[in-house]
Amino acid sequence: MKLIQVIYMKIYKCALCGATNLKLARRGDLTTGITSENFSVTDCNYGKTADIFKCLECGFMQCCIEFDPLPFYEELEDKSYETGRNERALQMRNILRLIRKYRPHGRLLDIGAASGILVEEALMLGYEAEGIEPSRAFWETARKQNLPVHLGAFPHPDADRHYDVVTLIDILEHVPEPVKMLKDVSGLIGRNGIGVVVTPDVESFAARIMGFKWWHFRVAHINYFSRKTLLAALDEAGLRHLIVSRPGWVFSMDYLYTRLMRYFPQILRTRSPGFFKHIIVPLNLLDSMLVIFENR
Fold first, then answer.
1. pLDDT at position 71, please?
2. Ordered structural domains, the chain, with CATH
3. DSSP string covering 185-253
4. pTM score over 0.70
5. What's the pLDDT tens digit per position in 88-119?
6. CB 245 within 8 A of CB 98
């Protein structure tokens, strides 16, 4: 009598097109249990990811995780985040300058608002702005600064009206159902509003050169969009893009130096000189996408 061995293989669905024809693009290298620290905005364990799959139907790259990331974000405490508040404010200001060309005023909702930096900048520009943030620590920081940020996840019962602008700045790469999130945004912007998404570009020159050592390959990122797959996600959600641009960022020299050292062997790493904290550097490696969109 022959012994028949049955091997069970998990069937995953593409988060973009729903196909089950997924190929393992990279075996994950997580050697320890996942904690909320892995989801820090300032996490610099580049190259540490779960298994990454590529859909052979639409090309979308994704981590088919079997856990809910929301509890990790709710418990998240990122003490290093506020040290770069001034630089992050400059980044948000630049994004808002572009948004103002399309909607110079009105109601604005920032999803994944962290400590409310974009909300604060938008208020100063005259928007009726508010945000949503799942991290209690970030929310408490925003509350101390009297910024209108709601604690919780999106969709949120306190942010269910019409908005002229809804922003998703470095958010879409973190959520298990990105198309559903875009559909929910579609319902908030109605016929006259716009949405704004910023997310890394996995097919950018920097990503191709760095391979899986690229700084956007990290535990917290479970979706890896290219221009093609991002626009396909918008289309799937009933949205059309108005512009696609390449946003730049602003960092302190200390931030850049510290992260550059991550690519060196431990024995060659040195501390950043103290005065580097006072040097601000605008940087655009063309590896992020900013898309402004509206309902079809």
1. 96
2. 70-201+223-295 (3.40.50.150)
3. HHHHHTTT-EEEEEEE-TTSHHHHHHGGGSTT-STT--EE--HHHHHHHHHHTTEEEEEEE---EEEEH
4. yes
5. 999 999 999 999 999 999 999 999 999 999 99
6. yes
